[in-house]
Structure formats: structure tokens, C-alpha cells
Amino acid sequence: xxxxxxxxxxxxxxxxxxxxxxxxxxxxxxxxxxxxxxxxxxxxxxxxxxxxxxxxxxxxxxxxxxxxxxxxxxxxxxxxxxxxxxxxxxxxxxxxxxxxxxxxxxxxxxxxxxxxxxxxxxxxxxxxxxxxxxxxxxxxxxxxxxxxxxxxxxxxxxxxxxxxxxxxxxxxxxxxxxxxxxxxxx
Length: 186
Description:
Elements: E1 2-13, E2 16-28, E3 33-37, H1 44-52, E4 59-64, E5 70-73, H2 77-80, H3 87-97, H4 102-116, H5 131-144, E6 149-153, H6 161-174, E7 179-184
Parallel strand pairs: 3-7, 5-6, 6-7
Antiparallel strand pairs: 1-2, 1-4
Helix pairs in contact: 3-5
């Protein structure tokens, strides 16, 4: 489903060019679950940016076997959750942008809210939430997009152990047929 073909990516810092990937190729089959682990700064998020199309400044190709919808939850929650929208509006934002049925989305959100055991109000604004709650909001927004491919960048880093287990259990239920690439440094 996803083919990375001879990806070469470098950054320039203080006049020095640092190559992150050199002719890197990878194939990921439909419905695969792929986890990438590694130290900070080695290019995990860069790879997701390339796959998602956020980063177009690289050599090589990213191919999909058909037109796909990509749900990307980046780790930059303070830059991706819009502070002037409450949680509900942030969650529904991508869905509405893509013209997906609002009523169906609200129904799915209600199920996910119950399954995740969410105990905070969606009327709150991002600045009123803990980092873990912001991660839940961003994850819900990504899931409600009904993506074929989920790109998750450190999606559980701020969740306590019990909530992390619950979220992973629910994710397995809702994403059995989805392709998932998740990155973490632990």
C-alpha cells in the first residue's frame, strides 16, 4: 500500500549539511501495523512528514497503491489544536474540511468517548486541558477522519499507564483494517 522509493533527505544546520536518509526504501502492506523506535533527532518524525506529504523537500518517491486518506497526529499539539476552537470543533475540523457526514461523525465520537472513558468536556478549549487530554483530542480528530492510513507521532507520551492501555485497546478495535505507522522513542 505504501512504497518509499530511494528517499534521500538532508537538513542544513549552521552551514553543515546533515543527511538523515540516503536512498532509503521501504514497503508497507495494507493493514500493517509498523512501530518505529529510536533516539530523539534521528528522523522518525521526518519520515512521517514525508509519507503524509507535509514535507515535500526530499529526493525519491512515495507511492500509494490507490488514493488514500491519511490521518496524521503529529506531536506538536500546541500548533495543531486551534486555540480559538473548543475540543468538539477541533475534533470535527478535519472531518468537516473533507465533507464527511457530521451526524455520523458525532455518533462515532460518542462511541469513542465512551470506549476511551473520557471524563472531560468537549466544550473546553485546548488551553484548559492537560497534555494527555490534548493527545486524546488530537487522536479523536485523527480517527474521525476515517483514514486508510494512520500516522501517529508519540501519541501516548503524556498518558498515564492505565489510560495508555485503555487507548491502545480501543485503537486495536477501531483500526483492525487500517495501516498504522506509530513512532516513539521508548
